[in-house]
Design a protein that fits this description.
2 copies of one chain form a homodimer. With 633 residues, chain A is an alpha+beta fold. Chain A contains 14 helices and 21 strands. In chain A, α9 packs across α10 and α12 packs antiparallel against α13. The longest helix of chain A has 23 residues.
Amino acid sequence: MNLHIDALTRTLGPAVPRRLAHLTPLPLSAVQLDPASLLGGWQELNAAATIPHCVQNVERTGVIANFRRLDEAGQETPEGKFRGFWFADSDLYKTLEAIGWEIGRTGTDQWAAMLTDVAGLLERVQLPDGYLNTYVQGTPGEVPFDRPEFTHELYCAGHLMQAAVALHRGSGDERFLTIARRMADLVVRSFGEDGRPIIDGHPEVETALIELYRETGEEAYLRAAELQVERRGHGSLEAGRFGPQYLQDHLPVREATEAIGHSVRQLYLAAGVTDLYLENGDQTLLDAMEQLWESAFGTKMYITGGHGSRHRDEAYGDPYELPPDRAYAETCASIAALQWCWRMLLATGRARYAEEMERALLNAIAASMTHTGTAFFYSNPLQLRNGHDGSSEDAPSERLPWYDCACCPPNLARLFASLHGYAATSDASGVQLHLLTPGTFTAGSMKVVVETGYPWDGDVLVTVSGQGELAVRVPAWAEGATVDVAGARVLAEPTPGSYLRVSCEDGATVRLTLPMTPRLVRADERVDAVRGCVAVERGPLVYCVEQVDLPDGVLVEQLRLDPSASITEEHAADDITPVRLRLSAVIRPLGSALYEHYEPASATGAPITVTAIPYHAWANRGPAAMRVWLPLA
Amino acid sequence: MNLHIDALTRTLGPAVPRRLAHLTPLPLSAVQLDPASLLGGWQELNAAATIPHCVQNVERTGVIANFRRLDEAGQETPEGKFRGFWFADSDLYKTLEAIGWEIGRTGTDQWAAMLTDVAGLLERVQLPDGYLNTYVQGTPGEVPFDRPEFTHELYCAGHLMQAAVALHRGSGDERFLTIARRMADLVVRSFGEDGRPIIDGHPEVETALIELYRETGEEAYLRAAELQVERRGHGSLEAGRFGPQYLQDHLPVREATEAIGHSVRQLYLAAGVTDLYLENGDQTLLDAMEQLWESAFGTKMYITGGHGSRHRDEAYGDPYELPPDRAYAETCASIAALQWCWRMLLATGRARYAEEMERALLNAIAASMTHTGTAFFYSNPLQLRNGHDGSSEDAPSERLPWYDCACCPPNLARLFASLHGYAATSDASGVQLHLLTPGTFTAGSMKVVVETGYPWDGDVLVTVSGQGELAVRVPAWAEGATVDVAGARVLAEPTPGSYLRVSCEDGATVRLTLPMTPRLVRADERVDAVRGCVAVERGPLVYCVEQVDLPDGVLVEQLRLDPSASITEEHAADDITPVRLRLSAVIRPLGSALYEHYEPASATGAPITVTAIPYHAWANRGPAAMRVWLPLA
């Protein structure tokens, strides 16, 4: 039996390798997430609220107007200056990508008119040679590809390609694919083997060219991506004040095995390099990516799955430099991390990559959006003090409806619209479940139905029709997981951090039970910023304590957790925080001197029991101080 | 007896109020610091190395060339573009200020020819209306005072005025004073009561105008300074991405009682407001400054006297947001803090202001320069990890000879050249010693000779000629200080954090003995970033442990200090680290997981004794990881 699917099926999801994958993604049409579940619910919310919000905002903030004023045929708003950041085109493209996946998911036609308008606009604004970038075209003095460290032209082109691929996969729409191919063909002609050795200051086009290659079969796009990857790190970009690492041009990719510089650029590049490995099989690329992954995920990642601790240059810090209060942890970085992990998972089949996808998804990414789907965090701190100045966009006290630099909201929209593509894979032997979410997953003759309240409870019931091997990821924290099967034979017991493997007959049921007891987690002692603290986790969710849950007169800064006390659960009929935790702590009196003689601490303090809520639900009840890492009594 | 000195004496030091001071600075000619002492040695080093280095670098980096190319008479380099940052003029002016103080201190004529050249250059480049700014004059499209949030024109003008005042006080040089007054007169004419309500995005001119008023007696300059202060905080500046607080335009000064925004701008403004109080006696200004001071020094200052924790916008963070690794703690901020404290001290006579001057001077400021006087830190972190990426100018691993933004080196030069002006004051009753440095201090008929090895030892012997009251600051850490007098009567016993007061006959001797036992200091528990850590101090000096002092195979990150063990001293014949400390610690094995299940810590680890050196001496033996805050075992 071979369950490999046709790599050119129209309903493919994001990042489906043509060649080398250890695991093969399921077609989007082969997956339905339960809309009443957390992940499935996000997809519904995305369709109902987030995508329309993005459509509205790319109109409101002038992103579409930037095209219109270049549209001599349209002449709607020929006057006025370019609006927004020079990479504003990408906000539209990411929104289009979200729409593409959404059409594929539900067949909706609600954006048909908009797509026709925008396709026409893009066709008319695109130059005869295929060039398309409203900042460069609309700004006197700018010359195409003249300042690649700055202008983000290939970055925007990459998002155009990804939108085109999504729309083509989702609805068969050829219009955007034609536009994107004209731009890609220009890249191939201009920056090929014998062309200018141009790379972009912001990686993104690498993955996009490979996706375009996957969708069209055009090998020239793969070769163009390869050149982009191989040319990186030779100092061809003019470094600015943040150094060559900001542009990911500090070292060739095989030598750049420490995660540094702008975190989103680093992670998009890593996804592109991994995509290249998936198509060309160059093991030296995968080796480098595995080392880079250890650096990023083993020494520089927040417990929430956030990446990039520095605000100044949106960058990774030194190893273990992970301040919870000044965490930058850009939403886009966690999305990029998930995309990279997905590709590493496809390349290797190792559970740790799926584990980190889940961490980012259920914590940092989930936290970046309100439950209304229309307000967002750009940075995702793990601590906000009483007295925080939230006046700055880079560290607001609450999610904002939109940002001057609006990369994150439409990035969330495109992720959520394609989320079902990241949940499961198949290989020659059967189906692998990576995200434990209720839904239906089909691969060839094998159909897998998952029923679970996860991540709120730990019972995962899988019913299999057809015959084949089922693999279910057992999270690394799930010590004591058990399995109970009927009509099936366990090939590999449920071991934390690997896959439960079961050989199933038609009609088999597999019940995996994960222990959901809340637990305390500590960081490596080199993470100075959280010394003496623990985080509280339950299942895959990181919890936090919010000021709004404390009695008057008690500040979140005064709490000291009693690590020996048991943690109790409170189950509530509440979609946002269905499981809250109750923690035993003491209230420490506040000191009066910033610095004073050291005296051994007395563990005094009035006892208090405090509520913790999932981190991803914070700041949904107005601005409030918050802590993930709680000092111990 | 009235020991008040003539406020217009030519040898005045920096910031000598004409009107309201509680204490009056001693004229520079009335103070000689012992050149063999730490502070006196810095003055010698400054004269021999730092000032010449600055002179060389303002030439090398094009700062003077920016003037020359506008000098039609000279025609030396009429071609070329403006070089450096738009505020580069100020680098020259601060260097001139240093030279002015240095001439006053030693009478040196080594820069006479340079001063003549530069004075001629400035005279020729200055426009007929008095305007002088090489960035605006030399950049097509720039219009004077058109973009005050950006161009730093009044900031540069302020440094010109301060240079002119220093040169006038130091040598009677009228040339720069004339140039500066022409610019100041333009400010008075243009931005007076009925003029444009312009303020500068970077405060500095407030203090400068008041100093110019003090030097010339021209009341219009004081009034112009008052308008600058009163116009601030009404949103007249166009806020950029860092918000109005970056420009110190977020609130009127009487309401802006939390230290926020760009820390150097905040502190220069505070110094200017305090100067204004010293001249106009408006108590509401002093009240606001005292509240602001509590915010800055009570919740946002590093133990080294560094200010401003955020790299992104060079800004103060939230209260207690004081990461040691990503401390920005700009050298200029500590200099500005010292200047502000000096003015608060003059206004109130309170010891806490002198205490904080000393903390900044002997720790953050002292650390910012090598013992060669020719390499500098811009930011002054309290921790540098093994594995630190020191490739960025904002967080290098070693002091650099110069910076693209070169504000700090000449700021150090002007401070050190005038340092003797900050050591002591007089009032109607006698002399007050604020910095415990060996030297000679004269006020009227009273002459005070201080002999001490401080800050390395705690014996301070003061011999008084003439009659009067002697006040000697007893540092806040000096619990157990004792005094022994001859020919004198103790009016106030030595109490930490206040002044020992002694009524002296001619020939009296006063021996103050300060306990120099090393001590452990902890931070307020809200300083999350150093939870579970202590700093080691001895006298006024903060100590640190540097990787270079550890045996091979032991990382500074592995040390856990035993707080119950006594600390021993090592005295060495070494000018840089004459007193080292030996600390008992254990070596903690490194963990392997970034996050893992919490287990109560076992206090295991091999014992080790490690050397600590004064923080200000770190990174003088090559790049090395370093920690001020040491975790406890």
